[in-house]
Amino acid sequence: MTMKIKITLYLILTLIFNKGIFANPKIDSGAHIYKEVCAVCHASGVANAPKLGDHNSWKKLISEGQVIITAHGYVGVRAMPSRGGKQDLTVDQFAEALIYMVNKSGGNWVSPNKSMLDDINKEIINRKKSK
Ligand code: HEC
């Protein structure tokens, strides 16, 4: 391969690769929302909040499943304020921030599809009724 071709190839690959990373706004927004809203408690474990990266405290939550934990966190559980204390947070945004935390803490969750979002919303309504 000539130098020129190598350089061109490198530039093309860099372009494709970078686009791959930056074209995923959901991953970015999960991390962003975590930092803006959740980190204040979940980074250090304020009031026993399960800490980011602490596999042990997330293990049980993760095993309860994404629908339940997303819905209950959104409504609020004990010392966990509803919507992380940010009342204009949508279910989608809350879910993304939670996915970011879970996936840094031993889980492997993905963005909810339409049917999972429906289930989360149903569970939110149930949970609010029983509160
Ligand atoms: C003001 C502090 C605070 C903020 C901000 C906060 N949390 Fe929490 N969170 C807690 C505490 C404390 C707990 C533990 C509650 C308990 O078990 O008593 C918790 C627990 C949770 C749980 C587990 C709920 C369950 O079913 O046991 C989830 C999920 C969660 N938080 C998600 C989030 C997300 C996502 C954000 C940001 C959008 C967030 N939290 C912001 C304090 C906070």
Low-confidence stretches are none
CATH superfamily: Cytochrome c-like domain
Listed once per kind, the bound small molecules are: heme C
Question: How confident overall, as mean pLDDT?
Answer: 89
- Overall, the morphology is elongated
Number of strands: 0
CATH domain class: Mainly Alpha
Amino- and carboxy-terminal Cα gap: 68 Å
User: What's the helix-strand series?
Assistant: HHHHHH
CATH architecture: Orthogonal Bundle
Share of helical residues: 55-70%
Strand content: under 5%
The major pleated sheet works out as: none
Q: What value does the Rg take, in angstroms?
A: 19 Å
CATH domain topology: Cytochrome Bc1 Complex, Chain D, domain 2
Question: What do these coordinates show?
Answer:
The chain is mostly helical and 131 residues long. The protein has a single domain, classed as Orthogonal Bundle (Cytochrome Bc1 Complex, Chain D, domain 2). The protein has helices spanning 3-22, 25-42, 55-64, 66-75, 91-103, 114-130. Helix 2 (25-42) packs across helix 5 (91-103), helix 3 packs across helix 4 (66-75) and helix 4 (66-75) packs across helix 6. The longest helix has 20 residues, at 3-22. The N and C termini lie far apart (68 Å). The model has no long low-confidence stretch (mean pLDDT 89). The chain binds heme C (HEC). Heme C binds next to helix 2, helix 4 and helix 5.
